[in-house]
Design goal:
It is built from 43 helices and 5 strands. With about 950 residues, the protein is mainly α. Strand 3, helix 13 and strand 4 form a beta-alpha-beta unit.
């Protein structure tokens, strides 16, 4: 312990000798004498009274006065700690040994107590002095000195390292791009700058590591010899706020090394974040006091403009005030780093330039430290930003001059070092491997990144795909690569199945990696996938025709997938980006290319299983594939696995909706065992015949029954394709035909549903060109080959049933048919001259119609209405899609007939009443009559069957050779 005390005394002696040698030593002694004298006078005037008052209260109530004294002492200490943090200020005072308010306060108090005690010893009696009334001040002085020495020699030392940098920037210890050596050289260059105010531009593209490189430059400096301030121009709320931000950071930097009174952060909560909230009362009061900030001693000048005519030993009073009137700044350089310039408001950029120019002008005669403004600039982005203001703000020209044209403005330029391909590759692989190892992902070994191959031409296996993607990432910025890694962390952190289990390998890693890259660089592709993925899902569904028409429309317009993307996203893709966009689609959704290929087949989907190129998996991904939401794909896959092992009970227990969904799923898996297809064919047909799937009369939209028929037909396709062609029908093919026969012969299945089966299998003119149509045609040919007579008889039976039920019979269409429009129209021969046939169709349509208001509403759906319409011209002008050229309407329900039936009915609907009133008024318009003329239509099912010999034509005796006009 004595050695420790001796060491402290030795160090203090050395500090005192150096201090005496300073040029400002006598000024310090002078002001210390003034402050000590001032405090001594105050103590001399009030000290005795204070002591006497304290003794009075102590003698009056000893316990209470001691308690109040202790409480008051702690309150006083708390106020001191809250307002000035004396321990911290004492440490900073010893850091640079610069006379400050801490220095004068500290020594003035000590001197005052000593002077008062000595004076009392001289003027008061010795007994009074030794009783503690005055000797206590010597003890207090000694305690203050010892406390200061203990604080300086023990506890945590002040951390002078630079800590404020851009969010996400990496330092030397985490350098993955080999910037360290170059950053060290750049820091040496900053030290050698000779001007008093220097502006250095650090250039690099957005996200390529400017902030990290700048941080490494700063970390390469000796923090004991440099000051550092970080400012991001995006931190301010508005242009006028930049001055406040700059002054706060300026004072903060000085306060880190030199004790300063904090005049900006007293009381207001989160003031550094919620800047617009203002400051507290104390802060505003201290700011007012700071306007009288005058230095006791002049500030020493260390740097000045080399071309200034007179070199001063001290700075001007204005400059001294800017630097807090610090007597001598020990550091040799102050780096002010300004980041995010190209992302700031225009006013803020201009204010920054103004401040630099003022420093240059104000500090020509001398600055206490060399200033280096380090700008992080994304040159193309800043240039484009200023160009945008060039026509609207004359200051844009001044800023362009500063940043680009005037070599005196930005005098030194630093560029981010080039990152070698090997280093970039190692950087990428290092980040990805952390995710791969943590999540135990299945990833190909020995990955050798390259951009060989075209993902838009052929689907890449996992190894080729990941090598291609990493080669693409190597061309991107480290920021984008890091953002992708963060996105991967989020995805795999959320990717759980419905019971919370990890499902990390359900989708291959490269698809997730590439999709996260697409989200950043080509976000409109995600929008395109979202809007169109339903077209590729389950091509065997009833909406297959919609998909077919979309493809035909694209073909007619002569646009490929790029044009399709532009059409859906309303975004023009630059020509230079076309190959990149196609590559992205090829990597994550190659099935789009199959879809646009005329001879594509849904069987080609199987090779995409486990990837997002499989449409259902992509749909899962787009629906936030977090495993919490059960998706059809996952559910059906579990059913499929169970079905293969337990075929008897699996599908019989499924609800109708789940059965149909599972059936669609199986159709897209050509490798499914034929036994699975047979089970589904038999189960669906059984439910349709037995009533397990209910008819929904007058529902002209997609129903469970119509969907069931489509899925039944598609399973028959799959079953037939898995059987080899032979001279005699196989057992499975016989099972398929028995199902067809049972359905077409069943009295429990409506005519319209039977028409769906016949139209799908037989009518090869409808939907010609789609792959599913070709498969339907081949299936029907196989059935005809082995069951020709039976098939023809079944077709005739179906149309005989139509005649018996509706055309010649008295069955009510609206009680038994779902889409009665379809039933009526497909049962027509398509000849305008078949007056007798059309008459029967109309009678079937009119039969009991007045008793079915919902059916009447459906008929009126084809006739638009608007309150302001008065003539047929208003219809043509107000509804451009209205057309009576549709031959179906006048065949079974002429307008006059509809009007008559509606009047007879008791329908109570305001819209129908409005339509009835308007269309009755215009029904005799010649143009309307011309549009209602019936025309031949060979697209109906009956027309096709007659032309191809499956049905007999109408007898000539009842066919007239004139057009049937509306009765």
């Amino acid at each position: 312990m004595p050695l420790k005390i001796f060491e402290i005394l030795r160090i203090k002696g050395q500090d005192l000798r150096r201090f005496i040698q300073k040029s400002y030593f006598f000024w310090v002694v002078f002001w210390l004498f003034v402050t000590s004298t001032f405090f001594s006078i105050i103590i001399w005037i009030y000290g005795k009274e204070i002591i006497s008052l304290a003794l009075y209260f102590y003698n009056l109530r000893p316990a209470g006065s001691v308690f109040v004294g202790i409480i008051g002492f702690f309150i006083l200490v708390g106020i001191l700690i809250f307002t000035i943090n004396p321990i911290d200020k004492l440490k900073r005072q010893g850091l640079r040994s610069q006379p400050s308010w801490v220095f004068y306060t500290y020594w003035s108090l000590i001197n005052t107590f000593i002077i008062y005690s000595l004076t009392s010893f001289t003027w008061q009696s010795r007994e009074f002095w030794w009783n503690g009334n005055w000797s206590v001040f010597l003890v207090v002085s000694l305690m203050i000195i010892l406390s200061k020495w203990i604080i300086e020699s023990s506890g945590e030392k002040l951390d002078l390292s630079f800590t404020r940098f851009a969010s996400g920037s990496t330092g030397i210890d985490n350098d993955k791009l080999n910037f360290k050596a170059s950053a060290k050289n750049a820091s040496n260059g900053l030290l050698n700058l000779s001007d008093d105010v220097n502006v250095v531009g650090l250039y690099g593209g957005l996200g390529f590591g400017k902030s990290s490189y700048a941080r490494m430059i700063l970390e390469s400096l000796d923090e004991n010899k440099a000051l550092y301030t970080y400012i991001s121009l995006t931190e301010t709320n508005e242009a006028k706020d930049f001055s406040k931000l700059f002054s706060e950071r300026w004072l903060d930097t000085l306060s880190e090394r030199y004790p300063k009174i904090d005049i900006t952060s007293h009381l207001p909560f989160m003031d550094s974040i919620l800047r617009e909230s203002g400051n507290g009362i104390i802060s505003e009061l201290l700011k007012a006091i700071s306007t009288f900030n005058l230095g006791l001693i002049k500030t020493k000048s260390a740097f000045c403009d080399g071309f200034y005519s007179k070199k001063n030993f001290f700075t001007s009073s204005a400059i001294a005030k800017l630097f807090g009137n610090i007597t001598e700044i020990k550091e040799t350089m102050w780096v002010i780093m300004v980041d995010e310039i190209e992302r700031a408001q225009f006013e803020e950029i201009y204010r920054l330039v103004e401040i630099i120019e003022r420093f240059k002008n104000e500090g020509r005669s001398g600055l206490p430290i060399k200033l280096v403004f380090l700008f992080c600039i994304s040159e193309p982005d800043l240039n484009n930003y200023l160009t945008a203001f060039s026509d609207s703000d004359p200051r844009a020209r001044l800023l362009r001059t500063f940043f680009y044209d005037d070599p005196k403005s930005i005098t030194h330029r630093i560029f981010i070092p080039t990152v070698g391909p090997e280093i970039k590759q190692e950087f990428i692989l290092d980040l990805l491997n952390k995710v791969i190892e943590r999540e135990t992902l299945d990833v190909p070994k020995d990955v050798n990144p390259h951009a060989i191959g075209d993902p838009s031409r052929s689907f890449m296996n996992h190894k080729d795909a990941i090598e291609h993607t990493i080669a693409i990432l190597k061309e991107n910025s480290p920021r984008i690569i890091s953002r992708i890694t963060i996105a991967l962390d989020f995805f795999y952190g959320a990717f759980r199945n419905h019971i919370g289990e990890s499902q990390n390998n359900n989708i291959r890693f490269n698809d997730i990696l590439t999709l996260e890259y697409i989200k950043i660089e080509y976000p409109y592709l995600i929008d395109f996938f979202t809007k169109t993925i339903h077209i590729l899902i389950n091509q065997a569904e009833t909406n297959n025709m919609d998909s077919y028409f979309i493809k035909e429309d694209l073909k007619k317009r002569q646009i490929g997938i790029i044009g399709w993307i532009e059409m859906e996203t309303k975004r023009k893709i630059p020509d230079v980006d076309h190959p990149k966009v196609l590559s992205m689609i090829g990597l994550v959704m190659h099935y789009y290319f199959d879809f646009l290929n005329r001879d594509y087949d849904t069987k080609s989907k199987e090779k995409y299983l486990g990837t997002t190129s499989y449409p259902e998996i992509m749909s899962d991904y787009l629906s936030l594939i977090d495993g919490v939401t059960e998706t059809n794909y996952r559910k059906n896959n579990r059913i499929y696995i169970k079905h293969k092992t337990n075929p008897e009970d699996t599908i019989s227990s499924l609800r109708v909706g789940d059965l149909l969904s599972y059936t669609r799923f199986i159709f897209d898996i050509p490798s499914a065992p034929i036994s699975v297809n047979i089970d589904l064919v038999e189960e669906i047909s059984r439910r349709m015949i037995s009533g397990g799937i209910k008819i929904d009369p007058m529902n002209v939209d997609d129903t469970a029954f119509s969907e069931g028929m489509y899925q039944l037909v598609f399973q028959i396709i799959a079953l037939t394709e898995k059987e080899r062609d032979s001279i005699f029908p196989t057992e499975n093919l016989e099972k398929a035909f028995r199902v067809v026969k049972s359905v077409l012969s069943s009295p429990n299945i409506s005519i319209g549903i039977k028409f769906i089966m016949l139209s799908s299998l037989v009518n090869n003119e409808r939907g010609s060109g789609s792959s599913i149509h070709g498969r339907l045609e081949n299936t029907f040919k196989r059935l005809l080959k082995h069951f020709d007579k039976e098939m023809r008889d079944l077709i005739k039976e179906v149309f005989l049933e139509v005649k018996i039920k509706y055309l010649d019979g008295s069955r009510i269409l609206y009680k038994e048919e779902e889409n009665f429009f379809y039933t009526l129209y497909q049962g027509w021969s398509g000849s305008k001259d078949s007056i007798h046939e059309i008459s029967k169709i109309r009678k079937a349509a009119q039969r009991k119609l007045k008793d079915y208001p919902e059916a009447i509403k459906l008929y009126w759906r084809k006739y638009p209405i608007d309150e302001e319409w008065t003539t047929l011209d208003d219809v043509f002008e107000g509804d451009r899609f209205f057309s009576m050229n549709d031959t179906s309407n006048p065949v079974y329900m002429p307008l006059k007939t509809l009007i008559s039936v509606t009047k007879q009915s008791e329908i109570d609907d305001p819209e129908i009443s409005m339509k009835l009133k308007f269309w009755e008024k215009v029904k005799d318009d010649p143009r309307l009559k011309e549009m209602a003329v019936i025309r031949d239509d060979q697209s109906t099912l009956r027309s096709y069957l007659i032309r191809n010999g499956f049905l007999d034509p109408e007898p000539k005796s009842i066919i007239l050779t004139r057009n049937l006009q509306e009765e």
